[in-house]
Each structure stands twice: as structure tokens, then as C-alpha cells.
Predict the structure.
Amino acid sequence: MTNSMSVSAPVATAEALYNLPATLFPFATDKSATWWYTTAAILLGLLALEQTVYRYKKGHLPGDPWTIPIIGKFADSMKPTMENYMKQWNSGALSALSVFNIFIVMSSTTDYSRKILNSPTYAEPCLVYSAKVILNPRNWVFLTGKEHVDYRRVLNLLFTRKAIGLYVGIEDAITRKHFAQWMKDREGKGAMPIMMPSRYLNMDTSLRVFCGDHIPDHATKEISDKYWAVTQALELVNFPFAIPGTKVYKAKQAAKVAMDWLELAAHNSKAAIAKGAEPACLIDEWMYLISQPDYKGRNDFSDHEIAMVVFSFLFASQDAMSSGLIYGFQHLVDHPEILAKVREEQERVRQGNFEAPLTLELMDQMPYLQAVVKESLRVKPPVTMVPYKTTKAFPISDHYTVPANSMVIPSFYNALHDADVFPRPDRFDPDRWLDPNSSANTNPKNYLVWGSGPHRCIAVEYASINIALVLATAAVMFDWEHEITPLSNEVEIIATLFPKDGCKLKLTPRTHT
Ligand code: HEM
């Protein structure tokens, strides 16, 4: 460690405790008093050790000088707020805290955050504490180094342009189906939050893109209903035991249900492709690819392994996509001049034919819509940070080394709100992406919405296109009105960012002349 400092922790010696007056333990006999003194001495010694270790690891970094015994900042991590995050980030480029004796270093600058993401020999993603329990420790996302690179090379084939073209057709159909249902549910009613309907739409889209018709409708409904338990367990550090009644336990049960259905999808897809069916979803695409004579890689994926991969995609997508979509709606409805431009582009590219399904080729011709999505994700990045873990002492700067086995958390928010790169950073301004020479476009290193390095989001194009497609469809099908409440501009953090009131929209069918 390069950080050296003198540590002044509270020191409680056993001797001092033995000298405490016996009146402190009035109920104690001589023998039991000795027991009490010894136990108290050990406890106080452990607490002192905890503080000493925390202060030693923290070195000169900003952060609380003492950590709350045992739990540290557990309460804050259970109810995270942007204000608390900002306070932590603003305290320094690197700052320290501790939760349940997990020592955590947060980085707030673009350079430190990128360094963490791009230093696989020192740090690897650990996601949140509950992720391993929910996803299964054997899930591919926990692979590192060459094993991770090799596995990901196969999965990259599921997000080629050809594959995304197939998924766009599915997204279009599912979006229209859900919007028809939204209309029925909202008939004669005023503004309603779009939070939960958007989550259902996203889950249905994901499951149909990933599994096609290899699972029944009631399975997508069941997975959707239960999935909220997974979202709720995604706190930075949870209660450490997954015992009945805890959030992590409930999430694990929900994951089991999803995994059973996903294994069925894998089984059915294998059978369909073996019979010569054309790929109609992501698993089909995968099974088709590995059955080709010129394919050289692994082809012995079990149903369980396929299901784990698909579950990792659901896990990575559901909350981030929902947040991205809801803020996409909110940004557009609050900027009618920008929504009008989106509509103009839709009219031009689709030549007024809004019944024809969207295709990847049509989506390519919508640069304004793409800029809208990119900007919306910048202003409110669904993922504000990703927890990593140091596998060995990590000399992150000339003045500080993050100890081995610490959590180290790169923040994306500050990079995305850097006023030098994004003037008036809180302003929703898609135009900043339309000029190739703008500071936004010439500083791509700041655009950390998708992370960076070996674990950068595998589904960047797929996710961006999906959000764009849903917004475009809603823009041409509905007139939107936002019921602004005192909570509309307050941010709720439930794994990702959401407007606290769920974005209350009144949608009425739009008539085209
Ligand atoms: C708006 C939507 C999304 C956002 C903002 C987002 C963002 C991210 C971020 C920040 C990371 C971590 C990157 C890093 O550690 O450097 C990540 C990883 C990942 N994302 Fe996404 N994501 C989104 C949608 C999706 C979707 C739809 C899928 C799947 C279909 C997906 C699959 C993954 C996977 C598998 C990883 C882990 C990659 C690896 O470890 O190699 N994401 N995403």
C-alpha cells in the first residue's frame, strides 16, 4: 500500500475493562462478572480493530473518519438517494466508506472510473452483493480473464446486425400489442403512471426476443409478476444471509421460476432448430449458429447453461431498459418542440405509413431519434455506477492503493454531466449529438452509459434501438400529456433511476390526416 498515515483508533484494553466498577454489571456474581468483563473486552477489542482497519484502508481519502460499528453505511445503501451519492462523489475524485465491513472506494471522475473498468488484472465486476445468489455463481457473467473473453465472443454473435434485424420485428409486434392494451386500460381515465406498464412491456419484449414462442403467454406473465422481487433485492449490499423473509430469498425464488421456463425454452429451441426451423428468436439464433458445419467453437451448451445466459440478459436488461424508456417518455413529453421533431422525422421516413412494421433499415434513417435516445440516457443514465471488486492491491493513483478485496465503484454520472464536455449538462439537448464536431461527439470517453472495457454492455445497439422503437411508435400513435407532480423531477433509485411519481401520462390516440 502506498498510503501511509498514522491511525488513531479508540483503544480499549482488557486491563481497563477489568478495572471498571462492578456496579456496571449489578446482576453479576464474581464468576459471571469475569465472563461479562471478558466478553465485553473482546467485543470492544473487535470494534476497535474494525475502526483501525477501516481507517488504515481509508488512508488520506475523504470519507467518514469513523464507520458505524458492524453495519457501516448499511442504512444509506438500503435507501440510496442521488443527494447522498452526490455528496459522496463531490467529496473527492476517490472517497471511502464501509458497509458491513466491506471497504468501498468510490470514484467520481471520468479518468478514475475508466481506469477501474479497464484494469481487469486488478478489478473485476462484482455487481451487487445479491447478484451471485440470484444469478448463480456459475453464471458466465462472473467469468474473468480469457474465459470471459472466450465466452463473450460466442454471445456477441447474438447481437450482430442480422440478429438485431430479427429482434426489431418482434419488438415492433410486442410494442403494438402492449400499446393496444394501454389504450384499453386507460380508456376514459386521466393521466396514469407508465412505470409498471413499461416494465411489463420490457419484460414481454425481452422474453419474446430471447425465447420466441418457446414459452407460453402465461409464462411471460408469471416471470414479469415475480421479477419485481429481483429488482427489489438489488441493493448495493444486502442483509448478508438469504434467509426466508429477506429480499434476497424472495428474489432467489423468483429467479427459480424464471429459470425453469428459460430451460424449457432452450429445450424447445434445440428441438425446433434440429428439425430445420428458421431462427425466430435469440436462443434459436444461438442454436442455429452452433449447428452450422463451419462453426468451430463450443456447441455443447446444456439447457441449464443457456437458461443462465438468458437470465443474465434479463437481469442486465429489465431495470436498465425500464429506466431508459420511462425517462425517454418524460424527456420528450416535457420538451414538446423535440417531440414534434421526432414526429416530423417519423412522417418523413415512414411516409405516413405507420401500420407497416418498423425495420432496422428504417431505424437507420432516424438520426434525430437516435440522438434523442442517446441524450436521454446521458441526462438520466439508468446505471449510475457498477460495483467492481479488487482482486489484488490496486495502485489506482500515485497517492493511493485500493486494498485487495475491496469494492471499488466507478461512477458514470459525473462523466456524463461534465460541463466541459456537455455544456449545461442537465439540459436535455439532442442537438449536441448532431454536430460531429461538438464537444459531446469529440469526447466519447465521457459517454459511460454502457460502461467501458471488457465488460462494456454487450447489447448497446439492441438496447438503443429498442428504446427508440418504443418511443417512435408511441410518438406516432398517441398524443401525450404529462401530469407534472411535485415528484416528477425527484429521482427514485430502485436499482436504476426512475421519476418518483412513475411519470404520469395521459395518452390519447392520434389521428393522422
Ligand atoms: C438502457 C439499457 C441498458 C443500459 C444503460 C446498460 C448498461 C450496462 C452497463 C453500465 C454495464 C456494465 C459495463 C461495465 O462494467 O463496464 C452493462 C453490462 C451488461 N449488459 Fe447492459 N445495459 C442495458 C441494456 C442491456 C440489455 C437489453 C442487455 C441484454 C439483452 C444487456 C446485457 C448486458 C450484459 C450481459 C452485461 C455484462 C457484460 C459482461 O460482463 O461482459 N444490457 N450494461
